[in-house]
Batch of 2 targets.
Target 1
Amino acid sequence: MLSIELQTMGCHARALVDADGACARAALDRLPAWCAKRERALSRFDPESALARLNARGRATDVDEILWEALDVALRAAVATEGLITPTVLAALEGSGYDRSFEHLPREQSGRLAPERAVPSFREIERDERSRTVRLPPSLRLDLGGTAKGWSADAAASMLSRFGPALVDLGGDIAAHGAPLEPWPIAVEDPRGASGALALVLLREGGIATTGRDHRRWTRDGVEQHHVIDPRTGRPARTDVWTATVIAGSALDADIGAKRLLLEGSQGGLAWIEEHRDLAALVVRADGLVLQSTRFSEYLEEDST
Amino acid sequence: MAEPRRAGVAARLMVSIAAVAGTLGGWVVLAARDEVVAIPAEQAAPSLAPLPTLATPRVQTAPPPSPRPRRAPVATTRSSR
């Protein structure tokens, strides 16, 4: 088993390949550069990134290939969720106080909150595929954080699986490719501060992701804030969900599912999960109660709590 | 006044019959007991099969089987770190 650990895209990452060859080792060693290239294209904190330049100018032609693909992924997610997971939340995110990388973000802020207001529709974004041009209306700026990590984890795992079964963990968004003989054991962290894991999941292929308001949070004007914006209000989601973990066919779909659960609340979110045979979910509510969808138990290690 | 006297005679007669019957019964019982005691032990064949013994728990000589060791996780999913 070969592995590598790195810091990228504002999080800790880890990749494993069930192989021993020099080619697999070389592929793993190329991963930091591969991730850095994505970060340079997609970071909203680096003013020189392709995304930051597009946001600043409102228009870009011959857009960076990674940004073009990442935007396409984000817009497909927006269509699939009827705008619930949308890349058009940057102004709202900054308005809540998340205007720099999280490690530099003051946890107690004094600025005033903007009034509640729906974020711009993703349908206002114009794209021309032939010239790879993107145009944004004046009030619309993009953040691709809702989908970029899951998508990147899938792409990295797919790339590494040429050498053997592979698993890529980008800050908790995890992709597994290449059908290992034994499934990958993956812990679900207990956000209530307990020492042990909440559950041990066995994943052979696909993705698992968790989103929540337990870590990336701060206060502004005395009001608690977090990083998942509800596009209907332009404010951080206020539901009974503390964290949501979703298992899906890919890390991208798992990430989208987990965010949707957080935005819709445990009742509506779990009902939506039950309607999709390829999804399973584990929810920790703000009152500490743990709920799981019907199919989640199919993935649990025996004796897992 | 003749009826009560007749009833008293009948009652005394019943008590006498019961006493005789009881005495005879006692002799029968004693006679029967004497008969059982009289059978020589070597001739006495058990008329009943031995009572089945209740299943007794076996003494555990081996340690109880340990639960299957849990696999160590290779990754942890959590909200973005």
Target 2
Amino acid sequence: MSPFKFPVINPLLHNELRLKIMVVLDSLESADFMYLCQITDSTRGSVSSQITTLKDAGYLDVTKTGMGRISHTVCRITTKGREGLRTYEDGLRRIFSQEIPSPQQSDSCAYRSK
Amino acid sequence: MTELDIISRTRSEVLSHRELTGENIFLAWGYPTAFFLLLEFLALELWNEDWCAWLWAGIPVVGIPLMIYFLNEDYERTHRRTLDQNVILVMWIFIGFASFIGGLSMGIADVFSQFYCMFQGLLIGMGCFMTGIILHFRPKTVCGIIASVLSVVPLFLQGDCWPWQLLVTAVITVIALIIPGHLFRKYVRNYEPV
């Protein structure tokens, strides 16, 4: 039996709020800051800091425009971000779908029992 | 809750709260197009001078600011743009540019009176048909087909009666943009997201 290999999980997306933001933007063409706060049910401060983290990683494209006295922040997912999310989701599916072998079945344990 | 649950729940929440927008864009293009085509027809019938044939250039001058205004209004209301909306927007921007560049080239090449109305009618009809398909809004699809079929009529109005092509194109605009625009507006007003 071939040994089970855990897929590499991207730690950047292994945060609930960051993951939600990425999924929302993956489902839409673009969304503004207010919508992201509303749909993730999070505070402005936490959404803002997670957007900055994702933007620095190249996962989001953030455009700030002035609409009257209020600045308007529009976020879009980048190709790198979309690929990162797909890889992350595939990795999770592989972990949950594959049967993780028990210690007795794994090669290393078989070696020890000898 | 696992990460996979978060992904599926967030995705279904975004998709289920989808509101329909863009109900004014078709009217914002429809009314100026019909108005300037009628104006050009009347001007040609009254004065029959070369400058009258360029009145169609007023369509983007009025249509583009109106479209930008309504797009901003939609964004302020919903705070997001879906992939479908973006496809429709890009398609109509392309149609607008194609119509403008086509009209300009035909004017310079001196074939405007022969092909422009057919060209514009066909573009509007196709745009209306594809928008109806994307939005799953049947009246738009049907109106797009009717407008596309009617777009061949101007080809049979050549020679001295060519200004009547403009009148036919104005009718095509009413069929493809104004009537389905009003129907879509009514549909959006009564639509409630799931």
